[in-house]
Amino acid sequence: MGNGNSLPTKRKRDPKGTRERLIKAAIELFTTVGFHASTTPLIAERAGIAEGTIYRHFDSKEHLLNEIFRAAVRLLAAQIQEAGKLREFPDRLHAISATWVEIARANPPLIRLVFLTDLGGLLDSNSEAARESILNELEKLMVEGKAAGHVRAGSARIWADVWLRLVILVLERSASGDWPPDHPAPQQVLSSAWSAIASATR
Amino acid sequence: MGNGNSLPTKRKRDPKGTRERLIKAAIELFTTVGFHASTTPLIAERAGIAEGTIYRHFDSKEHLLNEIFRAAVRLLAAQIQEAGKLREFPDRLHAISATWVEIARANPPLIRLVFLTDLGGLLDSNSEAARESILNELEKLMVEGKAAGHVRAGSARIWADVWLRLVILVLERSASGDWPPDHPAPQQVLSSAWSAIASATR
Amino acid sequence: MGNGNSLPTKRKRDPKGTRERLIKAAIELFTTVGFHASTTPLIAERAGIAEGTIYRHFDSKEHLLNEIFRAAVRLLAAQIQEAGKLREFPDRLHAISATWVEIARANPPLIRLVFLTDLGGLLDSNSEAARESILNELEKLMVEGKAAGHVRAGSARIWADVWLRLVILVLERSASGDWPPDHPAPQQVLSSAWSAIASATR
Amino acid sequence: MGNGNSLPTKRKRDPKGTRERLIKAAIELFTTVGFHASTTPLIAERAGIAEGTIYRHFDSKEHLLNEIFRAAVRLLAAQIQEAGKLREFPDRLHAISATWVEIARANPPLIRLVFLTDLGGLLDSNSEAARESILNELEKLMVEGKAAGHVRAGSARIWADVWLRLVILVLERSASGDWPPDHPAPQQVLSSAWSAIASATR
DNA sequence: TATGAATGAGTTTTCATTCAT
DNA sequence: TATGAATGAAAACTCATTCAT
To answer: What value does the mean pLDDT take over residues D160-165?
Structure first.
């Protein structure tokens, strides 16, 4: 729907941004129609560049995907690090989910790429490791949360996964616009996610 | 390698079974390597039939996928209906998850097809409706659960989704064999799923 | 030069011969315009088949080349074997060159493929071995020729190569039609080839 | 304005030499990997210049090939002229082959380009004429050799070709390093080449 | 019903060449 | 003169689908 550009017949030079436009077009397509349906002619057209130009910037379509993916993961993982600086365990989880939700609203494709698009078999080992790192970081947090008596008995890894899945639900709906900032659902689900992993402290 | 000859050395006739074998091969491939990587030559080879034979039974590869998908959904949805006959709300949820976990262990591809494989853009409207029906049925259950004071405040639909996502986590690990029947994690996560949606009633 | 076929607009089925026509078209193109200029669309068009059909018969363009090449080499090598049955050394060489010249006249592309077309880097190890086998067989002959006092001092391998190069000159001109059967040059050059390797017997 | 940045970390200026380096890189690549595999990115990289710079010096890749080829042929043809000054016919042939062998050892790519690399279809008419000129010059020599009773009966053109082919064998092996200066084979083959074309006088 | 050779549109990728700087 | 990002036509190859048998 409406990409504002309109350079008909003779596009030739936009002083800067070929690579940026390529990445933007690719991430949008990958996260909407999927990797296979994002053909190189389509990506090029959406980016307003020639098909061959893709290969000046990336070795292959898979390489393009992996580079974009890792950049996205890095951004999200950085938020976990940042939250680690807070004192209280629940505050950390809040901080992470809050920032991620903001990102989901500001940049839905990024969230979709990392959490919603099925990239099975397309990610290289570096990318898989990057993806793992998110769960690993969350797991570390959960270990500390357990030590502080906040988290249920059971594997910290599992609670990291449980919490993440419910957060992803929130991100998904936030990214789609179904749950705008003033909607009550995000808070409800995040609170529910907390209940899912919290120890039944009295 | 073309053995153009015709020495029926191998399999030739299973009077009943061409269609079954085709479906089995397709579901296994779709859920392991994905729809695009499941090429018709590959499906045919795995099913032990000729490529052209696929089109005796299904109009297209997408049609094949959709038929299989709907059959799988129907099976799972039936368990919800079945559980609806039980009196107590929590028992119903237990019954559903328990049966699904059994299915996941007995027939991992089926569970993968419905819950784990990304089929974005490949499902027709009938199939999408079938998929929706699972959430719709769960939602109905949640409505009743709310009426009985078991479920948190908030949209029943949301709690259906929350509960389902955590159950899917269990199904995923059960289907993969990571969590065998005697593993404690399934019970922990299912209990966690209940906490996620349960009202804090005493 | 004029492939006599003429099935316009709607070619569809020629009861037999797809593979044969493909091979014929390929060998003609490889030996006239070269491997790189023999594009798959061109080969297909010349063979009167669809481009994709090439790949039902051969894994790749290189595979196609190698299969054709080896078949051609086998044919030529067989003539050396055959000649080995003759008693006298000079008769053997005569027999080989005579048969090869016949082949060159009857099937110029075959000779071109083996001896004239530059296939550097395109042949797989099997094909290279096949090509070597021609020189190896000739070398064996030369060893016997030396033992019988017919061949000059020096490495038998070298005299095999020397003799072959001059025979190739004859084959080249015979294949091109420059030297028809009644032309004196072939005999002159073959006699010259003999002088090149013959010991200065008194 | 030069290039905006300015960290002359690498090579930058060989005031004289861009064209030379380009030619050197091209001839090496053409004669080792072939014309098609000698891509412009590769040539440019090997020459240490930018891809676009090739087109400052040559209209096209084919043009580049042809210019190089003609320069090489001119060098070799000059040796024939030079040898023409000698009195005796056999000395002339000796002189030519000796100089060429030296060139083959000093500059293998040059010899490969003219005699060994298959350039079918890539040479323009000027280049073809240049290539012909070598045979023409040799033919003239052979005509004189016949007049002096040194050369066999038959077309002088043919004996030029016969002699050349065996000399090429020597050049090939000398260029590859298989036959170093002290190896006996070159003399044997050159003597054999002489036998191939010499009249059976005496 | 089953076959499998044949199809041809479509895919990713390469590369000689151009042109604004 | 030199650069190198951008181009776009063309290459090899794949695969869902058709159809004569």
So the answer is: 98
